[in-house]
Structure formats: structure tokens, C-alpha cells
Write a structure and sequence with these properties.
Number of strands: 27
Number of helices: 0
């Protein structure tokens, strides 16, 4: 959060290794986090102290069972805390608290040390075996992705409500009023707020945007009204206004490309055949 360090996950010979890159040092200092051990599930910086990280890993709780367990780690002192909490499906951290979902489908919130615990939902969410679960906290709203389904936590009803099915990939718009959802060949838009400008949209209205025979790689919000993505070898920009004929252009063509759009710097980074390119000046 203080932009002084980068957390790196690197796969080497099929094994994952984690590093801290201290970019505020000259030269930059690379630290191997071998103290964490194996079976790491998720890792993130402490939002108030970048010398510390939180990580969860699978711990054996019997001969045949394992349990997800969360720890705090001071990487300079190489000190690992006692387990903060365990036996959960997923967790997320904000500036002030933790959220986690238990295997029984209960949503909890606590401080950074697993104390002051509060259960948020009245009735458990039915958990489906074999599906992945992931939290998103946006504009004081809690979203939960279950496989290709998306739920919004209704803080009045204290329950999860499904608002989307079939969203394998999800991207929130910069204004946090829309979600682009996509799979290998199709892109659609889900509106999180009513839109009163033209074209008008209702809250939770979904629109199909476009379909391609080529595989869609990655999708980014170019602005809150345009998307940028790669389909096959082409980099495309599309307007989300689908009235009449869809406004879509081919921006560039590269073989086997991977893209990343930096909205802050307004630069498109593109990796193709081992070469890294940057394209500037797309937005003035």
C-alpha cells in the first residue's frame, strides 16, 4: 500500500516461490520468503505496515484432512504469529478489517488479529463442492464470486443475493457502477447502479456486448464507457453502448499477445513472442 515494496510470486520448476522486492532501496533489494514454508494459498501485505504480510496455507489437521489457516509474518524479523483463524474457504483484507467465509457458509468480519469477531449473515450460504470462492470489496459493498456466479451481500437483509451467472472473468469499471464479465468468447456488462443518461439502464440489468470465434485473453476497462481486450492476435477497443451497431475497432495486431492496461499511467503494456511493448497516447 505504501508503494515501497512489491510482492512477487514466481514459478520455478513447477514450484512456487515468494519474494519481497524493496524498490525504495538503492539498488532494489530482493528477499526470498522461504520462511513461509509450502502449500501457500494466498498472500497479501498488511495494509498498515508493509514490513508485515498476511498469508494462508494448508495445514494438516489429521491423517487425511487439511485446514486453511491464516498467519501474520514479519519478513524482516522472520517472525510468524500464532494462527489467527482457520478452516475457511476464502479471505480478504481491507484497510481496517478481515472478511472470511467459513466452510459452513458463514461470513465473518474481524480486526487484523482475529478478535472482535462478528458474523454478518443470518443464514449460511450453501457451499458447493469443487467451486472456488473469492471476495471483492468495492465502494463499501461486499461481493463474493462462486465459480462463475457473483453474489452481492445485502447488508440490510444480512444475506447474499445472486446477481450474475456465467461470469468466469470479472472486471469492475473505474466508476464502480458496472462490471464487465467474460469467458473465452463472449463479453457482457452488468450494471450495479441505475443509469439515467442515454442509454438508460436499470440496476442489475445485463447486456450482451459481443462474441468472437477467437479466444478472448484479458479484458480491461479503458474508461468507464469503453473496454480494451485481446481476441486472438488482435487488440480491440469496444464501446459499451450497444444501441444500433456496436462501435468496435482493432487497435493493433500481435501474435500470441498478453496485455495489461495501466489506467493510472494511461499506457498499454503488451507481451508478444518474448518482446515487451508499451503503447502510449491512447488517452489524452
Amino acid at each position: 500500500p505504501d508503494s515501497k515494496k512489491i510482492l512477487l510470486e514466481i514459478k520455478e520448476n513447477g514450484n512456487l516461490k515468494y519474494f519481497i522486492l524493496e524498490i525504495d532501496k538503492t539498488p532494489a533489494n530482493l528477499i526470498l520468503l522461504d520462511f513461509l514454508g509450502k502449500n501457500i494459498e494466498k498472500i497479501d501485505f498488511h495494509p498498515q505496515n508493509s514490513q508485515k504480510i498476511f498469508f494462508s496455507k494448508l495445514i494438516k489437521s489429521g491423517e487425511t484432512t487439511t485446514s486453511s489457516t491464516l498467519f501474520e509474518f514479519d519478513y524482516l524479523k522472520k517472525e510468524i504469529s500464532q494462527p489467527l483463524f482457520k478452516d475457511f474457504l476464502t479471505w480478504e483484507i481491507s484497510e481496517k478489517n478481515f472478511l472470511w467465509l467459513t466452510r459452513e457458509g458463514n461470513l465473518y468480519k474481524s480486526d487484523f488479529y482475529g478478535k472482535e469477531k462478528e458474523r454478518l449473515n443470518l443464514d449460511p450460504l450453501p457451499i458447493k463442492d469443487g467451486l472456488s470462492y473469492q471476495f471483492f470489496q468495492k465502494a463499501q459493498k461486499i461481493f463474493l464470486k462462486e465459480g462463475g456466479n457473483l453474489y452481492l451481500f445485502d447488508q440490510t437483509k444480512k444475506a447474499f443475493e445472486k446477481i450474475l451467472e456465467g461470469g468466469e472473468g470479472l472486471k469492475f469499471s473505474p466508476d464502480l457502477q458496472k462490471i464487465a464479465y467474460f469467458d473465452n468468447n463472449e463479453v457482457g456488462i452488468l450494471f450495479l447502479e441505475s443509469q439515467f443518461d442515454q442509454p438508460q439502464r436499470k440496476i442489475f440489468e445485463k447486456i450482451f456486448l459481443t462474441r468472437f470465434s477467437e479466444k478472448i485473453g484479458e479484458v480491461f476497462w479503458f474508461t468507464s464507457h469503453y473496454l480494451i481486450f485481446n481476441a486472438g492476435n488482435k487488440i480491440k477497443v469496444v464501446e459499451i453502448d450497444n444501441r444500433d451497431r456496436l462501435n468496435i475497432i482493432d487497435l493493433a495486431e500481435f501474435r500470441e499477445s498478453e496485455i495489461f492496461w495501466s489506467r493510472e499511467k494511461k499506457i498499454l503494456y503488451l507481451l508478444s513472442e518474448g518482446n515487451l511493448f508499451s503503447i502510449e497516447g491512447l488517452l489524452l
